[in-house]
Every structure is written in structure tokens, then in C-alpha cells.
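Newbie here. two chains, one complex. Structure please?
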Amino acid sequence: SQQGEEDPQALSIQEGENATMNCSYKTSINNLQWYRQNSGRGLVHLILIRSNEREKHSGRLRVTLDTSKKSSSLLITASRAADTASYFCATEGSYNTDKLIFGTGTRLQVFP
Amino acid sequence: EPEVTQTPSHQVTQMGQEVILRCVPISNHLYFYWYRQILGQKVEFLVSFYNNEISEKSEIFDDQFSVERPDGSNFTLKIRSTKLEDSAMYFCASIKDRDYEQYFGPGTRLTVT
């Protein structure tokens, strides 16, 4: 079964620095989505990238997708203390399924 | 901006009791989902629902679980006889079509004592 795995598991940076999180998965996908979760709260949708796309931008977020390596990365530029949260990738499989398979997440701490 | 809503935000129940978790998906969405997240663990898929029937379910979604869309707006998850290990955050999600963004509600924290 496909499974998303993020690395690093935890990341600590200073405000203003960039944060890069990586995600790997195992099977063919329709799309890959990134979410943010503040401690104990809901999942906020950040960005969706489809299997035929290689890069996507949204504000300070940049997502890449390499389907040959079955991997994706999320870059947050000029980070802020408010970006402190857990970040998850989730994949929608391409074979007769629309459920999302979530990764284990990266805990990002941004120090002011 | 339309959003998925869930009630209650927190439910405490005793083992063996039935609970119903409620969700109102985004109004023009067609596919509906329940996921759960045990504290400190990853988000797990439970069930998907389309065209008034279950389209896919995980092995977690056993006979104790059921889903229903009783009217045009609500989507419910029922757990018939709760167990301690059902304690988790339960998220509802919806999408307008396959290969689109899946939007999540704020979650219901279920505590089984």
C-alpha cells in the first residue's frame, strides 16, 4: 500500500529562514496534497499538485513533485513564528480510489 | 469562503455507549470522507461516501461503524459501542470531484472513558 513518509521528522529554524520538508510515497498517484496542523487542531489545506505537474507556488509556499522518484518537497520561504505547526503530505492514489494516505508529518518550529 | 463544519468539537462518552459525530460538508461537494487521528499518530482513512453509498472503507471501519447522509446537508459517523481505543480526533472531509482539493473540518475530539 502507498505510504507517505516525511523527513525530517522535526525541524527548528529562526524566523526569516527557509524551511524544506520532503515526502516520499510508494505507488502511483493522481495528486499529492500538503496540509498544516497546529497542535490538536484541524487540517488546513495548503496546496495540491497533480501528477502531471512538477512545481507549484502559492504565496511563500513552493511545492515540487518528482513522480520518477516518488517524492515531493514543500519549501516555506521567509518563515515566520506563525508557521510553527506540523506539516503533512497526503497522496490520492490513481487506481480506483480517492482516499488520502497521509504521511507521518514534519514538526516545524520557527523561533522569533 | 465555504468550509466543512463538525459538531460537537469534543465528545466524552463511556465505553459501550453509542456516539454520533456530525459533519456538514461544503455544499456543492459530492464526495465525503471520515478520517481519524489517534493522539500523536498520523491521520488514517476510515471511509468514503459517494452517491449515497460507501465507496471505500478501511479495515478500521468494522461493523461498529456506520455512516449516513440523512438529508441534503449532514453527513454522520456513528460508532455503535465505543471502545477505549476509539479515542481519537475524527475529521470529516469533502471534495467536489476526484483529483481536487480535499477540505477538512476542524475535527471532533472523542474521548472514551
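Moderator note: The mean pLDDT of chain B is 95. The longest strand of chain B covers residues 88-95. Thread marked as resolved.
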